[in-house]
Every structure is written in C-alpha cells, then in structure tokens.
Amino acid sequence: MRIKICCLCSASEVATALAGGADLLGFVAPPLGGMGVIAEPLIAELIRLVPPGVTPMLLTGHTDLRAIIEQVARCRPGAIQLVKATTPTLRGALRKRFPCLRILQVVHVLGPDALAEALRAEEGSDGVLLDSANPAAGQLGATGATHDWSISAKIVQALRTPVYLAGGLSPANIAEAIATVRPAGVDLCTGVRRDGRLDPARVAAFVAAARAAGSAL
To answer: pTM of the full predicted structure?
Structure first.
C-alpha cells in the first residue's frame, strides 16, 4: 500500500511526512489554487530534501504540454500528478520528453461517468488517482470530502494500471476505504492536519492504519 502525503509547504512538513513513513510527497504548484499551493522555487528546494526511495510528486493544473514540460524542468520532480484532464497524446509526449518521470492522471469521481473517464485516463499513464471535487467552488481536490467509493471500487476492478484513492481520507476511515476500494495506494492532505498544519500524530496514525488495512487485503 503506497501512501502519499500531499500539500506539503515547508521543510518541516517534509520531515514530518518522511518520519511518518510516507512513500510519496505531493507539492502543489501554480496555476492550481486552494490549499497548499507554493511557488515553484520553493517546490524545487523541498524536492531536493526528499531522499532516495521516496518519490516527490508535482501537482500541476497546466494542460498545455509546453507549460508542463517547462514546469517539470524547473521543479525536477520524480512524478507528476495531472490534476486536470489531459489527452493520451499529451501524456505520451510528456513521457518521451522525460522517460523516467512517472505520470499520474487524476479523475474526479462525481458520478458513474467516472468509470469511462478513468478508462481513458489510464492510456499513457503510470496510474490513475481518484479524487473528490467541488466544481461549483472550483475545488479540484483537497476538499476534505469523500466520494462514492462503490464507483471507485468498480474503477479499480476495470483498470490495468495502479489506482490511487484520495478524497476525505483520515485515520478514522482509511481502513474502510481500503477494504471497499482496494486501491494500490492512498493520498490525503486535510485528514492529517490540525489547524492547517501537518500533525505528526495524525500522520503516524494514518500510516499505521493504512499499512494494516493494506496487509489485510
């Protein structure tokens, strides 16, 4: 069970996520809005703190290939999370430019149509991340809300690529989420924070619960 802690904003938060046992660290870049967005120079600085064996992941809202390539070149992540819908052609071109970059395409689970979207999203991707969203408020992730896990479970069964689950996860519900969806990994931002700050105790509790639930599959 791979565990990603997202929306990291400082060296101390990176240290907390690493000490807690996270496998992937998420850094949110402009032009995305909402929680955890930090400037590219800081992202590049924090990525340099990530040790081998842990994957630093850049979250981007760009959908233009050139803009994504330039952002990756500036930040130097090990993986990229495409928060908005992109095409297989774009993902293929991105892979050609950065052969070692892992590509994760986000699908926002708003209803049954997410299954067809996920099937398209896995083409040219190393994985698909299922997240919650609030389009009316312009929130593409970090909503703190869960979505319909039964739809996510169907997506996991249908896809050949690894599927990651996000959206309203916390130490309290992660065991149920993993048992229901059976994802390859989980991702969270708000569920391990207290007053907006990453909380070491919540990180440790979440990682322990996720590892135990993953081992039980």
So the answer is: 0.94
Q: Which residue has the tokens 């990291």?
A: 8
CATH classification of 2-194 is 3.40.50.150, yes or no?
A: no
Residue 144, SS3 per DSSP: coil
For the chain, the straight-line distance linking the first and the last C-alpha, in angstroms and rounded, comes to: 10
Residues 6+ apart with CB under 8 A from 166: 4, 6, 129, 130, 131, 132, 141, 186, 187, 188, 189
Q: What is the pLDDT of residue 35?
A: 81
pLDDT band for position 160 (cuts 50, 70, 90): very high
Q: Domain residue spans in the chain?
A: 2-194
Q: Identify the CA nearest to 203 among candidates 47, 23, 32.
A: 23
